[in-house]
Amino acid sequence: MDLQQYLSNDCSCLVLLNLLVIYPWTVKKTFDQLTAPILALKPRGEIMLESVPAPQKLAPHALAMTADVLEDAATGRFVLLHDPAGQEGWGGQWRCVTFARAAIDLEMASDPLLPEVGWAWLIESLKKQGCEFTAPSGTVTRVASQSFGELVDKDENSEIEIRASWSPSNEDNLINHVNAWLELLAISAGLEPIPQGVTSIAGKN
């Protein structure tokens, strides 16, 4: 190699290094890498969180979890979908699909504003956990049952069901969306908020 070739190659290397400083080259994380923090998540002590088989036909990649609040106060399911090509209605590559059901007293069940309150719980939980999201949608349903015949002595009971989905805007904080869903379960179950700076004993997976 003569001097001219050496200098030419050396300059090329310097140009490349300068470009890397200006435009850093990053390796895109895989689905497993992005969701690893979710699988390692430890919820507050009253909530039992478990990873379950995810639906296979909704998106190329999926993760699913269920949660139960002690004494059957509430139960829920969280599904995270990922399609690199995106899907109609998502507005992105990710979609959270959630379900939460909790027992409520009859007085609350009779409140005509209950659906709006239930939806507000969800939005407040997402904001509290710092979630970035778009295209939220869902339904809030109140269920009241009364027994008859040989079951007439059974107490009346009521429940609220919140089914919701939304699209995370930032794939680097997906765990925040799971925490928001857990926050929704805690609120709907009537659990006391954990004071800031206090660590709860985690529930077992």
Give a brief outline of the structure.
With 205 residues, the protein is of the alpha+beta class. It has 5 helices and 6 strands, in the order H-H-E-E-E-E-H-H-E-E-H. A 6-stranded antiparallel beta sheet has the order 1-2-3-4-6-5.
Provide an overview of this structure.
- It is a single chain.
- With 205 residues, this protein is of the alpha+beta class.
- Helix content is 31%, strand content 29%.
- The protein is built from 5 helices and 6 strands.
- It has helices at residues 3-22, 31-39, 106-109, 114-128, 174-188; strands at 47-52, 61-69, 74-82, 94-104, 133-145, 157-168.
- A 6-stranded antiparallel sheet has the order 1-2-3-4-6-5.
- Helix 4 packs antiparallel against helix 5.
